[in-house]
Amino acid sequence: VGRPTTESLTKSRPQILIAGLPGSGKSSVQSVVFHKISPHETVFLAATESVHKHEVGNSAFVQLQILDIPGKLGSVEAEENLDSVMKGCSALIFVIDVTSENTDEALSRLKDTILRAYNANSNIFIEVFIHKADALTEEQRRYCQSELQERVDDELRESNDKVINRISYRTTSIFDHSVFEAFSLVVQRLISELGALESMLDLLVNRCIMEKAFLFDEVSKLYIATDSTPYHPQDFELCSDLIEVNIDLGGIYSEKIAKKGAADKDDDDKSSKGRSSTATIHLSNNMILYLREVSQYLLLVCIMRRQNFDGNVGLIEYNVKIFAEGLREIIERRRQELNLPSES
Amino acid sequence: MAAVKQKLLLMGKSGAGKTSMRSIIFANYVPRETSRLGATIDVEHSNIRFLGSLTLSLWDCGGQDHFIDNFLEAEQENVFKDVAVLIYVFDAESMETKDTDYFRRVCDAIYTNSRGAKIFCLVHKMDLINENEREQFCKVREAQLKKIGERLDLTCFWTSIWDETLYKAWSEIVRCLISNLDTLKAKLRALCEVCEADEVVIFERATFLVIAHAVIEPHDDIHRFEKISNIIKQFKLSCNKKRAGLESLQVQNANSTVLILDFTVCTSIMLVCSDTRIRPAAVLHNIQLANEGFKPLLDDAPIAGSDMLI
Ligand SMILES: Nc1nc2c(ncn2[C@@H]2O[C@H](COP(=O)(O)OP(=O)(O)OP(=O)(O)O)[C@@H](O)[C@H]2O)c(=O)[nH]1
Ligand SMILES: Nc1nc2c(ncn2[C@@H]2O[C@H](COP(=O)(O)OP(=O)(O)O)[C@@H](O)[C@H]2O)c(=O)[nH]1
Ligand SMILES: [Mg+2]
Hints:
The complex is a heterodimer of chains A (344) and B (310).
Chain A: H1 6-12, E1 15-20, H2 26-34, E2 52-57, E3 63-68, H3 76-87, E4 89-97, H4 103-120, E5 125-131, H5 138-159, E6 167-171, H6 178-189, H7 194-208, E7 210-217, E8 222-226, H8 233-252, H9 255-260, E9 278-283, E10 287-295, E11 298-305, H10 306-309, H11 313-338
Parallel strand pairs in A: 1-3, 1-4, 4-5, 5-6
Antiparallel strand pairs in A: 2-3, 7-8, 7-11, 9-10, 10-11
Chain B: E1 4-11, H1 18-27, E2 43-50, E3 54-61, H2 65-72, H3 76-80, E4 83-91, H4 97-113, E5 118-124, H5 134-148, E6 153-158, H6 165-175, H7 181-194, E7 199-204, E8 210-215, H8 224-241, E9 246-252, E10 257-262, E11 267-273, H9 280-298
Parallel strand pairs in B: 1-3, 1-4, 4-5, 5-6
Antiparallel strand pairs in B: 2-3, 7-8, 7-11, 9-10, 10-11
Helix pairs in contact in B: 6-8, 7-9
Guanosine-5'-diphosphate (GDP) binds next to helix 1 of chain B.
């Protein structure tokens, strides 16, 4: 299989545009999610002066282009150019800073940007991140979200009715998991195979009597899909924290090994060494967290009761293998469509 | 065995980060929560049980000038006598002559009242110092502080609440209060060999500070143990949020297996095996067998400098 050119990748990767007033946190959001900047380090980020395009090439399901645009309004040309940029975008994220005083300016910019994006491309998904929500309590978060949504709906109803249904609202902060949760849902909207992935997870959960299962993109820690049992944010948090532990420990204890295995270093395909990465956690509340790499940069993380785990590891591994095989087929098809290099 | 108390003074100017570090290490704060801490008034005492028979009596001394003046004058004997460890925290971003003058006076007070005490200088908030300038900065500061404390046993650390440097410094601090470290290390090495592991580390369970380690296969990253303290402590806190304790963790990849689990009452243990033929179940069995032998060392550790020892 020939390597795709950058050009062909660029064409196939869906684009996500991030807009909002200056200082609302646009660059911070994408740096924390995709570039592993620590949240407290974002204070050093300079104001964005021109459109920045970030290529994200993680697992097969997280192949994106993130467009970070300046919050400051640009020249006439730059603004005209924005229309054509929006035409090519699959999703628009508008970041609104809850701690900022100028709510009116933010709202009018929000409304303008949304209408503009919708006029350029009526298939675009629109996401409003009500950001820096770490300043709010849980209750304030809910209140803020419903109030903002109501105001925007009211204003948009006058100019364009249909766009309202395309907008989702989420409260976010880079200091907790909410920004990862919100970005996961944005990315999921762009995955056409989502339904298939969810049914496969449902099957796995039923067969192995699991409480919950997530499929994660390892590098970004976004979740690609989950089964249809009720979703609790804490489950997501715990699973994504486990991924972090897995990555960090793996990072510490792989260098030395790289030296040892230098002989067979030629093919860096992990599967050829026969053991994909796994992690098992026993919690004192009789729950087990079980993590397994099921494809390149894709991790399955499950929550199970101890009585369903102990003694059933063989069965679980067998079903996970079946899941991984199904996943491989989906990925292969996706890779062909997106013109990505094949994994095998 | 009767409990032994060791007195630790935590000093430095107001806002330097004393309460922040104490709260992260001993009270399960996450770094970001420290921005909500108020200034410390006078002295906040806390008694922390550490490894069975050891109690750390931590004196967090408010850093505003009038408090420090009071400690150095009217309260001098009360504050500075029977000190085992002085931890002096500097704010890296704003180290002025006034700070070093105070430090000099504190060193004098220690010299007068507790000559055998160990001094740890923590130059803190290093995240705020430009990365390119850090090395030079450290060199200059270390020379300066060592000069001031030349009559005393003084060590410098460079710390930040945002990374593992905090765990490195505090692990060293508590380790100097454990007297049977050599016995412990020898036993640990034997365990490491029996398990055919590359390395074994013992952590205090609540703080996850490093107590002792045995390394058979050398590893390039000399900061790995404090990194692991930091990683696992954070993860324990996120488990706690779900009202669950972390009992054990096993991570395997193509080349190695890492096992972390509760060991004695006061400690947790980590084993790393790069031999992929090792079976975790067998290792677990060996650890359980070893447990009894370690209990007297860890859960009732005799303490350096205590009059309990002959
Ligand atoms: N408290 C809090 N602060 C945040 C959060 N996200 C970003 N910030 C801070 O907000 C400030 C501005 O962030 P940037 O990401 O540079 O803002 P921007 O939207 O890219 O700004 P322009 O490029 O000028 O349009 C930084 O100091 C961040 O540290 C958050 O979730 N909570
Ligand atoms: N940037 C940075 N800030 C820190 C660090 N440690 C503490 N702080 C902040 O410094 C402030 C003062 O800390 P505090 O512990 O109350 O200081 P104390 O008066 O010495 O007890 C708090 O807002 C902390 O969040 C650090 O390592 N880096
Ligand atoms: Mg920016």
